[in-house]
Amino acid sequence: MTVVVDRFGDGAPVRFVVHPGGLPVRRYRTLGVRGTLVVLSPDALTGPGVLDAEALVTQVANEVLDAHPEGPVRLVGWSLGGAVAWWVAERLLDRGRSVAPPVLLDAPARPPRHDARSLRTWACAWAAARRTPLPEAEAMEALRVAAWRAGSLRLPRLPLDAVCMDAAIRLPELDTAPWDEVAARVTRRTCPGDHYTMLGPAVGALLDDLEEAWTR
């Protein structure tokens, strides 16, 4: 199990983004945020076999601690990466680190319960965002496996606030409401686009606004 690390930008603040795959990492460059984005892409989220959630979270948490040994940690997670970021927050709190409210980008709090119709809707949206040919059957199988893997990430209840940035165009079976059950308080924002096209300047502007509010 490895975690691929990409960095965009420079300086403070440093935000750690858990990327579950599905879209090119370079999409985070379009956010245009101030400071540094450290994008962590665990291959366990896209590789074959059963997901070892404990090992995954430990490895991502260690990457964060090695790169940022002091000061508050800022976590961001898109899609399934949101659940991983939340687990990493728990691990960091257990180690006595200060954690800013994690920012969850259209991150399901429960595994999507897809049927054939919803899988096809997701596959079409994914293919359109990739702008590259993707066989529908291949896309639907990848999405089915991703939903199955999400079931391995049971969200812990934490004494921590969370920020949910939901896509304005909702895809079926994506439920972000249960974050209210595991976070101390949830702040919600809406971003233009759907699950796959939301990663852009609007998200970056909201991240910068949240940073100003948190450090004020």
Order of helices and strands: EEEHEHEHHEHEH
Q: Count the helices. How many?
A: 6
Percent of residues in helices comes to 25-40%
Query: CATH superfamily name?
Result: Alpha/Beta hydrolase fold, catalytic domain
Biggest sheet descriptor: 7 strands, mixed
CATH architecture: 3-Layer(aba) Sandwich
Distance from N terminus to C terminus (CA atoms, Å) equals: 39 Å
Shape: globular
Q: In total, how many beta strands? A: 7
Detailed description of the structure:
It is built from 6 helices and 7 strands, in the order βββαβαβααβαβα. It has 216 residues and is an alpha/beta fold. The chain has a single domain, classed as 3-Layer(aba) Sandwich (Rossmann fold), CATH 3.40.50. A 7-stranded mixed beta sheet has the order 1-3-2-4-5-6-7, with helices on both faces. It is globular. The mean pLDDT is 88.
How is this fold's topology laid out?
Elements lengths: L2 E7 L4 E5 L17 E7 L10 H15 L6 E5 L1 H15 L8 E3 L10 H15 L5 H15 L11 E6 L11 H4 L3 E6 L9 H15 L1
Defining traits:
7-stranded mixed sheet, 216 residues, alpha/beta
Write a compact overview of the structure shown.
With 216 residues, the chain is an alpha/beta fold.
